From TrEMBL, chain A:
Annotated keywords: ATP-binding, Cell inner membrane, Cell membrane, Membrane, Nucleotide-binding, Translocase, Transport
PANTHER family per UniProt: SPERMIDINE/PUTRESCINE IMPORT ATP-BINDING PROTEIN POTA, THIAMINE IMPORT ATP-BINDING PROTEIN THIQ
InterPro entries with a match to the protein in the record: AAA+_ATPase, ABC_SmlMolc_Importer, ABC_transporter-like_ATP-bd, ABC_transporter-like_CS, P-loop_NTPase, Thiamine_ABC_ThiQ
Name of this protein: Thiamine transport system ATP-binding protein
Gene Ontology biological process terms from the UniProt entry: thiamine transmembrane transport
Any one annotated GO CC term: membrane
Span of domain ABC transporter: 1-232
From TrEMBL, chain B:
Subunit structure: The complex is composed of two ATP-binding proteins (ThiQ), two transmembrane proteins (ThiP) and a solute-binding protein (ThiB).
Subcellular location, record wording: Cell inner membrane; Cell membrane
Domain (ABC transmembrane type-1) ranges: 44-246, 320-514
Major localisation: membrane
Origin superkingdom: Bacteria
GO biological process, one term: thiamine transport
Its membrane topology: Multi-pass membrane protein
Matching InterPro entries: MetI-like, MetI-like_sf, ThiP_ABC_transpt
UniProt-listed SUPFAM superfamilies: MetI-like (SSF161098)
Name of the featured protein: Thiamine transport system permease protein ThiP
Protein family (similarity comment): Belongs to the binding-protein-dependent transport system permease family.
Coiled coil: none
Pfam families: BPD_transp_1 (PF00528)
Length: 233, 524
């Protein structure tokens, strides 16, 4: 039995009927690739609890979590944009991961400072998100993910807006945190290079279904016509 | 510079010059001795007091209502309710006043309900109470419509984040909603305050004698009845100074106050799912709806009941035609001037003349600072002896109501033009499309909707305006607004009810048909 088991998860958006089946092992990084509009982000929204499935089950560590509210699920999502509140400082944005009403003790504030150190932003506590670069903003959001201590991290095209070098740097940061905290990571990306660099396994999604999942190299070299059409080779 | 922008500059200069000339004329004209400063002081104090209380009450009601509406993105009747909130803005003021009287007045629903319960109580609506109720009736929906877009601007990810972090209703209010409101509230409060400060129709009809007189009403009385031109001009200068201070503050507090299209659907939220929160929101929405809808219901019911007592069909028909003609004339003039002014302002901005753009925006908003009564009397004075005022009264009404409607036209057109310029200017310059070709191929298709909204809005504002017609109207030029005012003053309430209903229906039909015919189909 796998750590994450998604079976018969059904959802309808506009006219597209989706049905997902997927298994993910504990501690692995699974890349999710596929054409835009295929349902990649919808799958993450279903797991995160932002959309309600019509049928099917999501098991993590053996428990069905589909009825739990988002905050109670053992997952945390990093979006591409708007991960931070623009009117709150960096420390407050990270602190929200410890207390949703921002009632932080001295120990909490120490933890915030530590988490900021982990993502290389020591001393950034009082800056506002508007004063940071795109990469720095995502680092702040990652610091909050660390403090939330959820065993599953989901990246929803989180680094798509960054340049190649910066993206590589962020992926290295995620890999380091994943190794230390023994996280399981689901990473939606539109760049196969991200998958090749960071993912143990890759799932290819088209038309609301998981077409193929397996070792990244195998999936990327699969003769499946949909995958070949997507990769353009 | 495009031709239209040049025309806009000339028009702005003419407007500013005419205003200055009016004040010079009035201050130079004879008065009734030295101004009575204690009278002016009393009027000023009451004007401030009622405006402050009105603003406070309107916002206290609008905040929970906006929050409940933002939290409940989907419920049956939501879009209808939002349309209802737009109604007091396009409804002729005097019609709204009649609705308020029909609910809270001596013979209104409230008194009837008290009677049925055995309490022999007659509410007194004339004076401060009535002014406050009417102002809240008009401005609570306006405040909701100005506050709600702030919620719609919150990205969907933010709500997902609140769910992911497990934020409760209180946390969300403290961390997200309050900072948002704190940014937006001061500017909304000032807009409401200024509207209540320069109120005319409400204070004229509901104000009770010298104890409840506002500046604008005092100006009207000085000019129309006492013919004390100097006092009128002095009062108008005081009002202009107060409004200028308010406008300066609005300018510095926030500029995102466009009266645009209806707020788009708010992104789905995850909080407020508990029973208590649902009940609280339902109660707030129900109360707010009742407050806005009851006067309208009363208006329709009493209007239908009063039809047999309506004025003679011939005079009603005549008044309706006068209303339509003056409304369309004022609306067309306001929209044409507004389009030229907005084009001139956009050209000034594009050329980097920020001060010129600011001055142009301010001149377009003269109607918010300078008492229309004073402008009207100035026209009167300048024209008397030269033209036959009796014959040209219609032109006076149209011109005056156009100046009054201009700020609203600009608040629709300016953002639309800025948006269009940002999107199309480079491409048009690269392709060499300009002048008439550009208007036909690019600007008209994209700006047609806002132009239609501006025209519809200014036409119904001109149609329902009481100030201009009260000043220039005479026995052969009576529109529905003036007829209604006379009927209310003579306590012919059944006939007034019928007139009010007819005026409301006519104004709404007028608004919708202009928006539909000029605005065309929905653009994708």
């Amino acid at each position: 039995m796998s750590y994450i088991e998604i079976s018969g998860l059904a959802f309808t958006y506009e006219d597209m009927e989706m049905r997902f089946d997927l298994a993910v092992e504990q501690g692995e990084l699974l890349a999710i690739i596929g054409p835009s509009g295929a349902g990649k982000s919808t799958l993450l929204a279903l797991i995160g609890g932002f959309e309600q499935a019509l049928a099917g089950a999501i098991r993590i560590g053996g428990d069905d979590i589909s009825a739990l509210p988002p905050a109670a699920r053992p997952v945390t999502t990093l979006f591409q944009d708007h991960n931070l509140f623009a009117h709150l400082g960096v420390a407050q944005n990270v602190g929200l991961g410890l207390h949703p009403g921002l009632r932080l003790s001295k120990a909490d504030r120490d933890q915030v400072a530590w988490a900021l150190g982990e993502v290389g932003l020591t001393g950034f506590e009082d800056r506002l998100p508007g004063q940071l670069s795109g990469g720095e903003r995502q680092r702040v959001a990652i610091a909050r993910c660390i403090l939330r201590k959820r065993p599953v991290l989901m990246l929803d095209e989180a680094f798509a807006a960054l340049g190649p070098a910066l993206r590589r740097e962020m992926l290295e940061l995620v890999l380091a945190i994943k190794a230390r905290e023994n996280l399981t990571v689901l990473m939606v990306t539109h760049d196969p290079e991200d998958a090749r660099f960071a993912a143990d396994r890759t799932a290819f999604i088209a038309d609301g279904h998981v077409v193929l999942s397996g070792p990244t190299a195998d999936v990327l070299s699969s003769p499946d016509p949909a995958i070949r059409a997507y990769l353009g080779s | 510079m495009p031709l239209l922008a040049r025309i806009g500059l000339v028009l702005a200069a003419a407007l500013a010059a005419a205003t200055i000339l009016v004040f010079v004329l009035l201050l130079g004209a004879g008065g009734a001795g030295a101004p009575q400063w204690d009278y002016i002081g009393r009027v000023l104090a009451f004007t401030f007091q009622q405006a402050l209380l009105s603003t406070l009450l309107a916002l206290l009601g609008a905040m929970p209502m906006t929050r409940a509406l933002a939290r409940r993105a989907v419920f049956p009747g939501r879009s209808l309710l939002l349309r209802l909130c737009a109604l007091p803005l396009v409804m002729p003021t005097i019609v709204g006043i009649f609705g308020v009287v029909a609910v809270y007045g001596g013979n209104g629903y409230l008194a009837a309900a008290a009677n049925a319960l055995g309490a022999g109580w007659r509410p007194g609506i004339y004076g401060l109470t009535g002014i406050l109720i009417a102002h809240v009736f008009f401005n609570l929906p306006l405040a909701i419509r100005l506050l709600l877009p702030a919620y719609a601007a919150i990205p969907a990810e933010t709500w997902r984040l609140t769910a992911q972090l497990g934020m409760g209703g209180g946390d969300i209010f403290r961390v997200i909603e309050w900072p948002l409101l704190r940014q937006r509230l001061p500017s909304v409060a000032l807009v409401v305050f200024m509207l209540c400060f320069s109120t005319f129709a409400v204070a004229l009809t509901l104000g009770g004698g010298p104890r409840a007189t506002t500046l604008e009403v005092a100006i009207y009385q000085a000019l129309r009845f006492d013919f004390d031109l100097q006092l009128g001009a002095v009062l108008a200068l005081i009002q202009a100074a107060c409004c200028a201070a308010g406008a300066w503050a609005v300018w510095h507090l926030g500029r995102d106050m466009a009266l645009g299209q209806t707020a788009r659907l708010v992104a789905p939220r995850f909080d407020g799912q508990r029973r208590g929160a649902r009940l609280a929101d339902a109660a707030v929405i129900l109360l707010g709806t009742l407050f806005v809808a009851l006067p309208l219901l009363a208006l329709v019911q009493k209007g239908l009941a009063g039809l047999p007592a309506a004025a003679a069909p011939a005079s009603l028909m005549r008044a309706a035609l006068v209303s339509l003609g003056l409304g369309l004339g004022g609306g067309l003039l306001a929209t044409a001037i507004g389009y030229a002014l907005a084009t001139a302002r956009q050209a000034a901005r594009d050329a980097g003349h920020r001060q010129r753009a600011l001055v142009l925006a301010l001149i377009g908003r003269l109607g918010l600072f300078v008492s229309p009564m004073v402008i009207g009397t100035g026209i009167f004075l300048a024209a008397s002896g030269q033209v036959d005022l009796y014959r040209f009264a219609a032109l006076g009404v149209i011109g005056l109501s156009a100046v009054m409607a201009l700020p609203f036209v600009l608040s629709v057109l300016e953002p639309a033009l800025a948006d269009s310029a940002a999107r199309h200017d480079r491409l048009c310059r690269a392709l060499g499309i300009h002048g008439w070709h550009r208007f036909r191929a690019v600007d008209w298709p994209t700006l047609r909707k806002p132009i239609a909204t501006a025209l519809a809005l200014s036409s119904v504002l001109a149609m329902g305006d009481l100030g201009a017609i009260a000043l220039f109207g005479h026995k052969d030029m009576v529109n529905l607004t003036l007829l209604l005012y006379h009927q209310l003053g003579a306590y012919r309430l059944d006939g007034a009810a019928a007139t009010a209903l007819i005026l409301l229906v006519l104004a709404l039909l007028f608004y919708w048909s202009i928006e539909r015919w000029v605005g065309g189909r929905e653009l994708h």
